[in-house]
């Protein structure tokens, strides 16, 4: 397979990731599909640009996937661990390409700083009041310029309360069955689910990239926290 990142892009990525303060680990769970190979190569090429990114790959059948509650039917799936080796609930399902490549880089910077959250302190405090298991799924496409903001908001939410929140980017075209399941027709499409009796129950959804305060209000309303 040819390289995904050309020389100029690699140099630009290197300049940006020079701002990383700690090391970040990306765990890739692969299936028997072309998307898995591309995702693994993309992350590997980034790890070749900076020694602050380490990539570990597993087949989805590995018991390690169970530790992170990865659905064995959904590959490629990637988990990002922060500079302390902690799982902060940041997930990528599919290849973070196109506009979502910038999301990946922003997440690397934040996770290198132990999951640094850029929300206002007021909103961070609200997120920390979440006391039930929450899953945020953001469906995106590589050509959508508004999608990164929606994914970053979800990932920042998980970083702020990783004990209760997991936030997942879903590449809608790669996971057409999931897109149909959630009736995704426009992106970014954010789905909010709460775990009830070991099942994920959809409690809210919205389309578009909301400003921070509006996003937090929609999230908390869906979780039923005032």
Tell me, briefly, the overall form.
globular
The largest sheet, given as strand count, sense and whether it forms a barrel, is:
8 strands, mixed
* CATH homologous superfamily heading of the largest domain: Glutaredoxin
The CATH topology of the largest domain corresponds to Glutaredoxin
If you average the pLDDT, what whole number results? 97
How many domains make up the coordinates?
A: 2
Task: Count all strands and give the number.
Answer: 8
CATH architecture of the largest domain: 3-Layer(aba) Sandwich
Unreliable segments (pLDDT under 50, ≥5 consecutive)? none
Q: State Rg.
A: 16 Å
Helix/strand/pairing category: alpha/beta
Strands of the biggest beta sheet: in what spatial order? 2-1-3-4-6-5-7-8
Supply the number of helical segments. Answer: 8
Q: Oligomeric form of this entry?
A: single chain
Percent strand equals: 25-35%
Q: What is the rounded distance between the termini?
A: 51 Å
Helix and strand pattern = HEHEHEEHHEHEHEEH
Q: CATH class of the largest domain, please? A: Alpha Beta
Residues in helix, %: 25-40%
Explained architecture:
This protein has two domains: about 1-100, Glutaredoxin; about 115-225, Glutaredoxin (3-Layer(aba) Sandwich), CATH 3.40.30. About 35% of the residues lie in helices and about 25% in strands. It has eight helices and eight strands, in the order αβαβαββααβαβαββα. It has an eight-stranded mixed β-sheet, with helices on one face. Strand 1, helix 2 and strand 2 (about 55-60) form a beta-alpha-beta unit. The protein is globular.
């Amino acid at each position: 397979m040819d390289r995904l990142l050309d020389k100029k892009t690699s140099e630009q990525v290197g300049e940006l990731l020079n701002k990383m303060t700690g090391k970040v680990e990306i765990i890739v769970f692969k299936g028997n599909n072309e998307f898995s190979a591309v995702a693994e190569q993309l992350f590997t090429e980034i790890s070749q640009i900076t020694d602050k990114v380490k990539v570990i790959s597993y087949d989805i059948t590995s018991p390690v996937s169970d530790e992170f509650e990865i659905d064995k039917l959904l590959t490629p799936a990637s988990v990002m661990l922060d500079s302390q080796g902690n799982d902060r609930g940041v997930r990528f399902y599919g290849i973070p390409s196109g506009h979502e490549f910038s999301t990946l880089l922003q997440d690397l910077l934040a996770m290198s700083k132990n999951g640094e959250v850029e929300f206002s302190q007021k909103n961070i405090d609200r997120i920390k009041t979440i006391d039930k298991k929450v899953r945020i799924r953001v469906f995106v496409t590589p050509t959508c310029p508004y999608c990164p903001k929606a994914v970053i908001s979800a990932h920042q939410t998980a970083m702020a309360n990783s004990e209760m929140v997991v936030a997942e980017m879903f590449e809608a075209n790669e996971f057409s069955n999931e897109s149909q399941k959630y009736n995704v027709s426009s992106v970014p499409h954010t789905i909010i689910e709460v775990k009830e009796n070991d099942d994920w129950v959809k409690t809210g959804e919205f389309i578009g990239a909301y400003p921070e305060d509006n996003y937090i209000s929609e999230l908390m309303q869906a979780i039923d926290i005032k």
